[in-house]
Write a structure and sequence with these properties.
Low-confidence stretches: none
Strand content: under 5%
Distance between the termini: 38 Å
Mean pLDDT: 89
Shape: elongated
Number of helices: 3
Oligomer: single chain
Structural class: mainly alpha
Largest sheet: none
């Protein structure tokens, strides 16, 4: 592991990536029965698929927070 300290927004990006991956796996699991011709899963399984969008939004908020912090640090002081 690196010794670099976490900046603002890094935790949001990591959390968003994990939530996105959970949603991606959920999407694969819910689409598989449709492609294989087996019985469909219950409705809550489809809600897990929606975590992909939620994870993407969380990660984008983290990126925005990180960019704004870097912009503030680079701004000239008056």
């Amino acid at each position: 592991m690196s010794k670099q300290t976490m900046g603002p927004g890094d935790l949001l990006v990591r959390t968003g990536a994990v939530v996105f991956l959970v949603g991606a796996v959920g999407t694969l699991v819910t689409v598989a029965p449709l492609l294989l011709g087996t019985s469909t899963l219950p409705t809550p399984a489809y809600f897990v698929s929606m975590l992909m969008g939620v994870g993407l939004a969380i990660a984008l908020c983290g990126l925005l927070r990180s960019a704004l912090a870097q912009r503030q640090a680079a701004a000239p002081r008056r």
